[in-house]
Amino acid sequence: MKRMIVCVKPVPDPNAWDRLQMDPVSKTLIREGIPSVINPLDKHAVEAALEMKDLFGAEVILLSMAPFDAQPVLREVLGMGADRAFLLSDKAFAGSDTLATARILAQGIRNIGEFDLIFCGNFTLDGSTAQVPSQVAEFLDIPNVMHVCDMSILKTESLLLTQKIEQGTVKLEAEPPLLLSFTKEANKPRYISFMEILAAEKRKINIWDNAILNIDETLIGLKGSPTQMADLLLQPKQRKGIRLTGNPEEIARKLADKIHQLGII
Amino acid sequence: MKTQHIGVFIEQRGGVLHDVGLELLGKARELAEVSKGTVSAFLLGRDISALSDDLIAQGADTVLLADSPVLEPYRLLPYTSVLAQACETCDPDILLFGATRMGVELAPRLAARLRTGLSAHCMDLRLDTEGKLLQMVPGWGGGVVATIRCPDHRPQMATVMPGVMKKLVPTERSGECIHLSVKEDLHRFGPKVLEVHIEEPKEMPLEKADVVVAGGWGIGNPEGWAILEDLATLLCGAVGATRPPVDEGWVSESRMIGQSGKTVRPRLYMGIGISGMSHHVVGMDESDCIVAVNTNPDAAIFEVSDLAVVGDYREILPPLLKEIRTRLPEGRIDTCELPQ
Asked: Where do the domains of chain A lie, and which CATH numbers do they carry?
């Protein structure tokens, strides 16, 4: 095991989502004032890679497709112990759907060169499509496994994986090269000390634009995305919200009446 | 409107159908009727041809059956190859998957191989006037809904959360079963499956329960959580949760409702000590009746509730449990049955 690549993504802080607003004219979301954090599950992917670094001295490389201002968030993740970080950033990437995003990330990985394993979080909090990992693997023509909740290394350097499914678990044996997406059960991300955060602030992030990746621009961004957003609506969800009043016993009786009306008791 | 050929991937493990495939057949049937089109069920596995009749009875016109030892148990790469070949020969306009553990791994890989578009976790699907698919997708924890189209690529692919669409009542319908050829030497299988461990469900599955009693951060401690469990048991229901109780370890993650958890649409949903953040609400707002109990009169959950109780659950639930017990017939608590 020589090189691990971890795909990470800065996402708007979920604690601030209720402040999201929409521009009524352009129908785009106004993200201003909503801070970015690293997608929480990505930390588990970084941790899994760092464990390989601890075991085999593997190099750990972070890869992200995001706007230029994502650099501070990437530096924070570098502070966990990763060796290098590449930020894929270009106006031509904007508006990419999952297929175009996967194409760009796959080209970034090819540009980095040889690798043994690629790690991702199982899904991101913002899009939550969970589609990009399988699609990156398809573009690279390597196998992938999602929902990995446990990983160990056999003597032969093949991997023993546990995949979480609805009804239980699946045990798999796999060999590199391979792309894995981790759930939060996989490990406990290591703590970053204040000194490590300070030290990481000076670390360099390598920025690659499309002049370097050289992808046909009809295959990326809005033009290269098979899916298009036709409309965006703020979701007004409202019901009558009839307030039940009285002392607890009276309220309990009214609730029980409703449960009875519904035919449950 | 152009007629649409709608494909549905039918998920099965060990010969047991996942409900979501049948739910999608119901929706596909509806879209097919609108466009005077047809519905094909894509069924992959080993010795599973007996399942075809059920699929036809519940909405399929054609079952495209790939029956081979290399397709049991499920593995991502062989399934992708077989489905990609089937799409080339059968050319569906639309192809639907359940947003299950299997579906969210398989659908994107297939979409990338076919270089087509895929939308995730649709809450609704419609056809526009030309017969093209409109895919309603929740974003930002359900705070917004985007309509996604895939105008120039085929098939138009989408995943749908289990529990969102409704199965059809089986009827006597005619249909045909077409066997797909499977190359036994699918050149690369990827990871080897050593073991599939299926756990017997011990408690009421959340998605199938008629009553869901859900708790949030406001419950405060494991002792409080026990009252919710009691109420759910008394109503033959299931306990659900927002993220904080899961993170606190009061309840297992399988009980989480919302964007990164499960979607429920029970006859009665009771939200106790839940503030009503949009990423929870998206998983329960299709419930028939929503009752909320919260000490904060401005809690967002009251906006989506039919009945609102401003108060402390510690004062409201004990008399409610007592009231329900007096109304239940003798012995009722022992007769709750787990749904099949």
From this structure: 3-219 (3.40.50.620)
Tell me whether strands B268-272 and B211-215 are parallel, antiparallel or unpaired. Answer: parallel
> By the CB < 8 Å criterion, does B205 face chain A?
no
Q: Give the tens place of pLDDT for each residue, B172-196.
A: 999 999 999 888 766 578 999 999 9
Chain A residues in contact with B138 (beta carbon < 8 A): 235
Q: What is the pLDDT of residue B187?
A: 55
Count of CB atoms situated within 10 Å of the CB of B130? 9
Residue with tokens 């017939």: B329
What confidence tens digit (pLDDT) does each residue in B57-82 have?
999 999 999 999 999 999 999 999 99
Exposed / middle / buried, residue B28 (Cβ in 10 Å: 0-12, 13-18, 19+): buried
Question: What's the pLDDT band for B140 if we cut at 50, 70, 90?
Answer: low
Q: Where are the domains of chain B?
A: 5-179, 206-335
Distance from CA of B178 to the nearest CA of A (A): 28
Structure ipTM:
0.90
- B278 vs A contacts (CB less than 8 Å): 17-18, 235
Q: What b/e readout covers B164-196, taking b as 16+ CB neighbours within 10 angstroms?
A: bbebbeeeeeebebeebebeeebeeebbebeeb
For B5-179, CATH number out of 1.10.10.60, 1.10.3720.10, 3.20.20.370, 3.40.50.620 equals: 3.40.50.620
CB-based burial label for B129 (10 Å; 0-12, 13-18, 19+): exposed
- Those of residues 30-69 in B touching chain A at CB distance below 8 A are none
Q: Are strands A59-65 and A84-88 parallel, antiparallel or unpaired?
A: parallel
B5-179 with B206-335: one CATH topology?
yes
Note whether A229 contacts B304, CB cutoff 8 Å.
Answer: no
Closest CA of chain B from A60, distance in Å: 23
Q: Are B109 and A167 in contact (CB < 8 Å)? A: no
Q: For residue A3, what pLDDT is reported?
A: 97
Residue A227 to residue B289, Cβ atoms within 8 A:
no
User: CB–CB of A168 and B107 under 8 A?
Assistant: no
Q: Note whether A129 contacts B: Cβ–Cβ < 8 A.
A: yes
pLDDT (tens digit per residue) in A43-78: 999 999 999 999 999 999 999 999 999 999 999 999
B17 touches chain A (CB under 8 A): no
Instruction: Dihedral sign for Cα A194, A198, A203, A209, please.
Output: positive
Nearest CA of chain A to the CA of B173: how many Å?
Answer: 31
CA distance B116 to chain A (A): 6
Q: Which of A160, A166, A233 to mutate to test the interface with B (most CBs of B within 10 A)?
A: A166
Q: What is the pLDDT of residue B334?
A: 58
Query: Domain B206-335 is in which class?
Result: alpha beta
B323 touches A at CB < 8 Å: yes
